[in-house]
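hey so i finally got around to running the thing on that chain from the lab meeting. sorry it took forever, my laptop kept dying and i had to restart like 3 times. anyway pasting the input first so we r on the same page abt which one it is
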Amino acid sequence: MAVSPPLGASRPPWADVLASIEDAVIVLDATGAIADLNPAAEQLTGVSASQAVGMGAGELFRASPWIAELARGTLAEGTAHRRSEGRLAARPDDVPVSASCAPILDADGAPRGVVLVLHDLTLQQTLEVTTRRADRLTALGTVASGLAHEIRNPLGGIKGAAQLLRGALTDPELLRCADIIIREVERLDGLVEQLRELATPPRLQVEPVNIHRVLNDVLALERQSPRWGQITLRTAFDPSLPAVRGDRAQLTQVFLNLVKNAVEALGGTGQLAVSTRLEARFHIRRRSGRARFLSVLIEDNGPGISEDHQAQLFSPFFSTKPRGTGLGLALCHRIVSEHGGTIAHEPRRGRGTCFRVTLPVSDGAGQ
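ok and heres what got predicted. didnt touch it at all, straight out
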């Protein structure tokens, strides 16, 4: 009988293949000890290969025993096992994963190890939440469209009457009151226009978009605002990122809204950080292949958002600002979801706010 070399005894020829796989791949030997794992597994578990090799599966997945049980069952039975979904708690934050495990058989068909594959479901679940929220916004938009039509007609009459009345007035106090009426009607008209946009979004003018050009334009524009004050800006852009396929004008609206919110929260002092990265761990399987994503993070060290408010951030008409309409983030959510991406608030330790926008890269850009 041919004797196979023990797993992990030397660098196997398929090590480079493992390193290029985006899913976490962990190889266990016949005793159930870790023999090898790829970089994606190191990132997912938070344990380096040098630490993990030789460690038992039960030790590596102490906080997620279902994964260790899956590996042990495969090794004992010599047949593949699959579990659709569970939580991986091997690093500080729990991660939703799907897991599958297959035996490594020797020449006689006896198991001499197993291969465990973990797929990070974080982005996929976020997309599902985004889709459900987008469906609710669509339903609300249908109602809002009817309301917008009914509200806009009387607003036009009120504004016209106030302008005529103002022309006939000479008393400064009455003129001030007429100006207030006109100004508030215009503000309501702007709110109604946002409602209309929520109900009937314009068609996307899709093209490859350099996300860094969009961000630089937004930051250059906002730095001219008197609200900027003494804010310190830090950027960390990955110059190798591919283009996203999207509508430049609408993506500009998203990031302008997020940057404005951060600047207002800082009140003229503090730090604003904008960074980009390729989400190498995240991909969505589609018929045409695997869609990869890039992320834009917009962070500030302002007062932050209370836990009570975080769940309602993207709900229409919810705002933490005294005179906010509560439609800005809802519109951002609609635009990002139309691009097939996600937008989420990520809690920060201590003070501050962080929003992450994740967008699929353009077709053919390194898929």
